[in-house]
Amino acid sequence: MKDINKINSIEDLKQIINNQIQKRISDKKPVLIVSSGTCGQARGSLALIEALEQVIKDEYLHDEVNIKVTGCHGFCEAEPNIIIQPQGIFYQHVKPEDAKEIIFETILNNKIIDRLLVSDPVTGEKAVKEKDIRFYKKQKRVVSGDNALIDPTDIDDYFSTGGYSSLAKILERISPEEVVETVKASGLRGRGGAGFPTGLKWQFARKAKGDIKYIICNADEGDPGAYMDRSLMEGNPHRILEGMIIGAYAIGAREGYIYIRAEYPLALRHISLAIKRAEQLGLLGDNILGTDFSLNIHISEGAGAFVCGEETALMASIEGRVGEPRQKPPFPAVKGLWGKPTNINNVETWGNIPIIIDKGAEYRYK
Amino acid sequence: MNIETQKVKSFIAKHNSEKKALISILQDIQKEYNYLPQEALRIISETLGIPLIDVVGAATFYRAFSLKPRGKHIITVCVGTACHVRGGPKILGEFKRDLDIDEGETTKDNQFTLETVACLGCCAIGPVVVVDGNYYAQTNMRKVKSILNTYRKKEKENEGYQQN
Questions:
Q1: Interatomic CA distance for residues A308 and B63, integer angstroms
Q2: Is there a contact between A227 and B123 if contact means CB atoms under 8 Å apart?
Q3: What is the nearest CA distance from B38 to chain A, expressed in angstroms?
Q4: Which domain holds residue B84?
Q5: Do B61 and A227 touch (CB under 8 A)?
Q6: CA of A80: how far to CAs of A48, A51, B137, in Å?
Q7: What's the structural domain count of chain B?
């Protein structure tokens, strides 16, 4: 593995991010992007990846095409699906038997395979590119949009989308109070469902008395039919970590927990990997990027209790007790984990933070 | 079942004998033995200084834990709302009928344990069934049989291999 060495300064981090961005821009080689979140794997993406790799190996095509395994592209119904870049061609329900044809026809001969295209449910017209598919057409994917660009096990891919530049920005020139103000001004509300203004919550936790404070990422998603948190954790784990690091800086916390439900094994694996990598590079741990700011993030695995998504029950579960909710107040911002001031936000909320810091408070969420 | 006290203690030590790690310790023990043996719960209670009733409380509160020995293959049928409307209960019924057990039970030959889960987060491809960590999407009554056969066949092959 390259760059195993710690990044020692904010300047160095900015340099690395810049290099990765340049690398992405200059790389013109075609890429087969295979969606392989839990939904993709359930539909056979792993066999598909194996088949594609086999063709490339057998035909010595390593110089012609790359394979990138990413998290969920959002269109689970069409899994396993492939996006072919740079053209942006979208193939759905791809089987291992299609591997050879895709590589020879589409990659080498520039021909579209008609039967793998998504047809419009109303007009029946076939869409060649991802952006022309009715399902995607009117979507603006702010948080999950990068999923299709990123190999979630490779931090360099996150750097190449400008990842961790928000962290560099705040450590370099923005005070914790200003971060809280920016989040407040952005109008971001808790994405877990209750919609409490996030900036206000941060302010409570920041102003709460106490030398030990905690932040928690609530990844005990369990609402039927909603799995944006799973897809973000599987597809872009570093975005969540970056959001948490910024949050801890703003609130004054040195310890953080991510409470992940046990029903999400792949999310658990990708988040664990991301934490490990961030620690290796000095983006987590003591004296992050050579500053005097430190943060450790731990994973707490759920054990199959729906109620643990409720914040007080969740904290009881992290403490190793039966996950039963308690009366509020006191709110977590005053008395949370082990009785200390705690700020708890959901996965998607944390995932929004780096974008707000990067683009400024005017970049509003509706 | 005889369990090794040392082994249980090593799991506790791995988590620095901290009370807060109770759930993680239970998870490790379940991974090792496939369920939570009574003896292990007693050792945890004594070592961590948590009253046994609280250890049992946590072990029975969380669905992921089992106090009964489980089978070699764990079948988890999703009956979350999305899978429910897509026919999850029918799939569960078919597994029950074929295996002749109720949910939460294990077949007499200790091969299969049937469990349910509420939402695995891939509702678009439900009803979803997971066997030993392998996901099966858009299952139907017919697929139940073929899923079970896959694992029964594997067992037969293993037996044949051992006999040779």
A1: 12
A2: yes
A3: 18
A4: 73-163
A5: no
A6: 8, 13, 11
A7: 2
Could you report the per-residue pLDDT of A295-312, keeping only the tens digit for each?
999 999 998 888 999 999
Please check whether residue B59 is in contact with residue B36, taking contact to mean a CB–CB distance below 8 angstroms.
yes
- Could you tell me which chain A residue has the CA closest to the CA of B23? A320
Amino acid type, A111: K
* Residue A10 tokens, joined: 């904010």
Domain A10-139 sits in CATH 3.90.400.10 = no
Among A168, A149, A166, residue whose Cα is nearest residue A157? A149
CB contact under 8 A, A303 and B57: no
> Residue A177 in contact with residue A303, Cβ under 8 Å?
no
Q: What pTM did the predictor assign?
A: 0.92
User: Could you tell me if residue B31 is inside a domain?
Assistant: yes
In this structure, are B159 and B84 located in the same domain?
yes
Contact A235, A161 (CB under 8 A): no
Query: pLDDT of A175-225, one tens digit each?
Result: 999 999 999 999 999 999 889 999 999 999 999 999 999 999 999 998 877
Instruction: Map tokens 């905690």 to a residue.
Output: A214
ipTM of the complex: 0.86
Q: Do B136 and B159 reside in the same domain of the chain?
A: yes
Residue numbers in A near B58 (CB within 8 A): 320-322
CATH 3.40.50.11540 fits A163-359, yes or no: yes
